[in-house]
Design brief:
Blueprint: E1 14-16, E2 21-23, H1 29-47, H2 63-84, E3 103-105, E4 113-115, E5 119-124, E6 127-134, E7 139-140, E8 146-148, E9 153-155, E10 160-162, E11 167-169, H3 174-205, H4 210-216, H5 218-247, H6 251-257, H7 270-278, H8 302-308, H9 312-353
Antiparallel strand pairs: 1-2, 3-4, 5-6, 6-7, 8-9, 10-11
Helix pairs in contact: 1-2, 1-5, 2-3, 3-4, 3-5, 4-5
Length: 354
């Protein structure tokens, strides 16, 4: 039985359910992230939400405190799965370098040398942008693409590799990553607010003493401290990515080009930038991980590419190089033949003189 693409994948990704789910090499960190979300919510439901059921005048309105926490936590976990278990925008590797990019230079030598440009210029919104060649993937990276050293893949619109979700953040999962971070921020605010409200209820029952309320519900104090610390991280991350979205930047671009004062060719205005992230269709994956290897389209051999290419200039250049080599060989043979004939004639003439 033929192997499938994910079974021989050269990146460091981990696949589950027959290649349907793709994670990064540090997928185990998801267990820590899962625990940091679920455990505080369980503590909240048992030690805080359960006691708030009868603190609201409306019939059974107190149960909504627990139900809302559970449903919203499930929503956050779904966003976490959508972020970490999908192709972030991996660019398929080439099996050989792009031969059409080779240049031939003779430099006065009989045998021309092959030169491979490390960068080339492409047009983005009417402005020339330089893209680099990736030696690992053997391709010119598309604009805004970068090679992740953790996953060992080139990722489109590479933002960063997030160890908390165990996956690269790129073109196909950035939207879900931002929704996950921002939703986690709102969950922290909700748990903090409900715990603070429960502390207020206990203070009223204990004649307004904070110490009495803290002794009666230490879990509320722990939850409030935990949520306050977490808000500094997920809240700050949410604000930072709101800035990045409004200016159409990635984390990688912001940290790398911040001091260069480069013009951002991708900025389309604040509203259009948000529409681009949240209102555009997620592009399908460029990799068919579950296909048998035979179904993966392999590039034709060099001879077939040369005969089938439509680029007349490139074909002429190759033909010219071949002709130059043939001509050079012929000239060498002719020169050698003339030299031999000249030597033989000299020997005969000297023999006749003697």
């Amino acid at each position: 039985m033929a192997k499938r693409v994910y079974e021989v994948w050269k990146g460091r990704n981990r696949f589950f359910l027959g290649g349907r789910l793709i994670f990064g090499p540090d997928a185990k960190s998801l267990l820590a992230t899962f625990s940091l979300i679920v455990v505080p919510v369980i503590i909240f439901c048992i030690f805080v939400g359960r006691h708030l059921r009868h603190e609201f005048s409306s019939y059974n309105a107190g149960y909504a405190v627990i139900v809302a926490a559970i449903l919203y936590t499930i929503y956050v976990l779904v966003l976490l799965l959508l972020t970490s278990a999908r192709d972030p925008g991996i660019v398929p590797r080439n099996s050989h370098p792009p031969e059409e990019e080779f240049t031939y230079e003779t430099g006065g030598r009989q045998t021309p040398s092959l030169q491979f440009p490390r960068t080339k210029e492409v047009m983005v919104n009417g402005i020339s942008v330089r893209v680099k060649y990736c030696d690992t993937c053997m391709l010119y990276r598309p604009p805004r693409c970068s090679h992740c050293s953790v996953c060992n893949n080139c990722v489109e619109r590479f933002d960063h590799h997030c160890p908390w979700v165990g996956q690269c953040i790129g073109l196909r999962n950035y939207r879900f990553f931002f929704l996950f971070v921002s939703s986690s921020t709102l969950l922290c605010i909700y748990v903090f607010a409900m715990s603070a409200y429960y502390m207020k209820v206990l203070m009223n029952d204990n004649e307004g003493t904070v110490w009495g309320a803290m002794k009666e519900s230490p879990a509320s104090v722990v939850l409030m401290a935990y949520c306050f610390i977490s808000l500094w991280f997920v809240g700050g991350l949410t604000g930072f990515h709101l800035y990045l979205i409004s200016t159409n930047q990635t984390t990688y671009e912001n940290f790398r080009y911040r001091s260069d004062n480069r013009y951002n060719v991708y900025n389309r205005g604040c509203i259009n930038n948000f529409l681009e992230v949240f209102c555009t269709k997620v592009k399908p994956s460029r990799n068919k991980f579950r296909n048998p290897i035979q179904e993966v389209q392999q590039p034709p051999p060099a001879a077939a590419r040369e005969s089938a290419t439509n680029d007349a200039g490139l074909e002429d250049r190759r033909v010219k190089v071949e002709d130059d080599l043939d001509i050079g060989g012929d000239l060498l043979k002719i020169s050698q033949r003339h030299n031999i004939e000249g030597i033989e004639s000299d020997i005969r003439s000297r023999g006749n003189d003697q």
